[in-house]
Amino acid sequence: MATRLRRAQQRQALQRPTMVAATAIALLLAGTGANRAGAQTTGEGPILQDPPVAARDLAPPDQPISAEEIAFEAARIDYDQDSDVVTASGNVQVSREGARLFADEVSWDRKAGTVIARGDVALVNEKGDRAYADEMDVTESLRDGVIQNLLIVTNNANRLAAEKGTREGDIYVLERAAYTPCRVETDAGCPKEPTWQIQADRVVLDNARERVRYDNARVKLLGMPLIPLPGLRHSIGEEGGDGLLVPDVGYDRRNGFEFAVPYYWRLSSNRDLTLTPHVFSAELPMIEGNYRALLSNGAYQVTGFATVSAVTPVADPTITTTKDKLRGYLAASGKFQFDPLWSLSGSLRYVSDRTFLNRYDISREDRLRSTLNLERIDTRSYLSIAGWAFQSLRPGVSAGQLPIAIPAIDYRLRTTDPLFGGRVQFQANSLSILRTDGQDTQRAFAGVTWTQSRLTGMGQEVSITGYARGDVYHSAQNDLSPTVIYRGEPGWQTRGIAALALDMRWPFIGKALGGSQRITPRIQLVLAPRISNLDVPNEDARAIDLEDSNLFALNRFPGYDRFEDSSRITYGFDYRLDRPNFTFDATVGQSYRLTERATVLPDGTGLSDRMSDIVGRAQLRYKDFLAVTHRFRVDKDNLAVRRNEIEATVGSRKTYIEVGYLRLDRNVTSGVEDLRDVEEVRVAARVAIARYWSVFGSTNIDLTGANDDPTSTLSGFEPVRHRLGIAYEDDCLEMGFTWRRDYQTVGDARLGNSFQLRLVFKNLGM
């Protein structure tokens, strides 16, 4: 089964189930629409292709026609005074109230107030919508009447055909009608069957109530009448209306066959509700709801799932709870803009147990995060007052160890240095982290950053950065933190931080290989005194790893709780080659610590010794056909590859292959859970086998073994998930069938096969 995210996207495209066909009926039969000649019918329904049309200029004339008069243009006009009938023949054009009628012959009975048009009849509105017919018998207002063999072509190429169309007041009736938004001609101009069309014995449009009703409606797909739509009705106009949306069909080993039919309610012009019952062959049904609201200063939505089923513990998949229990998931998000500066955004996510999302294919996430953030942003300052909480879905993670941040405050102010020039940024930050069964930490600091850049006469770019900060910490229950180097000393602690950095780049540009190349040597000197890092807790600076992205950073730790307190020199170079349709760029660098004192950086980070490992990145691109990115880290002592990451895409939009490979072999210090080694490969591909048909597939394989991670119990070749399918997509239809196999059992989310059928009618919801 496809994830609910994909389903939600499909539903969003159909939230206003108003058909272009119905809108066209209202436009054209109301006299505000249409063009020329006769739609023919066959035993299988009206023909949607354009009829042969004699050369005729259907563009409206320059001068408007008043609402009180009917204007005629024709090769010949005869008037019978006795019967008061005007007959026009030969390329006739009749205009009134913005509607224009074209025909070979038009008779206007002024006493009866009727207009009869015959031969290559067309009705055109000011929007460019056109109606073709063999004969039209309408009132002199060109509104009420009867049209035989009707074909409507709207200005966005949607088509509606009927054997007969009538109007009386606000009621429109079409007999044996067909609607399609699809192409009815090949690129060579030859007629073709539309990919899909809706056919009905009778269509009734109530323009006053803005509702359309279909009798015996069915969808004809790829020339075959496959899907009956009994009782189909919907709203027209801008506001849309209530109704069923596209169903979802699937199968997996745990829940069996699934059939889901969303129903949409338009509660008001700015609120709607979608309820989706999910019926399973092997489990009790599940209900899904989605409520959305658009307000004058923001928007929000709430989504929920609820069912009753047994729960299997994550630690032991062979054990199942003895009785069913209520299970579900709640997700809410929104943002409100109070004025140009102040805004409030947030999200709430909660699930009843660790395996619900995986089992019902709602999400593959292993951690949920709820947030609330009040922000003020202007051109020079930024203020954030936030809070967040986590819910872990990983096996073996204690809920009591998960942090809750209330509050997290950050304020920044940027200004210009009036004395020495350059830019100055002031920052004040505070954070309070609470745990129900773990270490509690509170932190506050104030800091200032000064930066100035200059360009020398020889073309060197020189930047000077000064940084100073004062921290205050308080922590309790430090012994409950499982990693010793993250605990810090309990109680109150203070820390001062200072650093000065000089950074120089010297770009050299010239011609090479039929293009241009740029070589930019770079060197950086950082001076920083020793800091009591281990005296304070580490909550936000744990997952450190030397990469090309942080090689020249002032602090290579990812957060605030740790600061790299070593004086060092970092050196490297950037290279870029540009040729027509071809680009190659690369970065390589290394750093050297000037002091011999011990560092808080653990083994495996590439920074624990005085001389760091060598890191780099290379990117190659050829047109839109080939893109390759390689990131690496090489051991300084034996040149062993400690990080090897490759992302490659080859092919066109229709036929391509994507490959991703990652291997981290860092010899990490034991007990540092944020720096474990892994190895994995990901492959995805799509191949176009015909103009609209393609086959696709993907695989994800975990190659981590005991050699990579001593704590791993994997064999070194563990498939995670495979996917294979076939898809069809043209201008108005998406259709696909997907097989997926999961190889891992997590609680009651079992390994096994699942299947999903996807069908999307484009341009159906407007």
Automatic annotation (TrEMBL):
Signal peptide as annotated in the record: 1-39
Any single Pfam family the record assigns to this protein: LptD
Domain LptD C-terminal residues, every copy: 327-693
InterPro entries documented for this protein: LipoPS_assembly_LptD, LptD, LptD_C, OstA-like_N
Cellular localization per UniProt: Cell outer membrane
Keyword Membrane: yes
Main location class: membrane
UniProt domain Organic solvent tolerance-like N-terminal: residue ranges: 73-164
Keywords: Cell outer membrane, Membrane, Signal
Its biological purpose: Involved in the assembly of lipopolysaccharide (LPS) at the surface of the outer membrane.
Record-linked HAMAP family: LPS_assembly_LptD
Family: Belongs to the LptD family.
Protein name (Swiss-Prot/TrEMBL): LPS-assembly protein LptD
Organism: Sphingobium lignivorans
Gene that encodes it: lptD
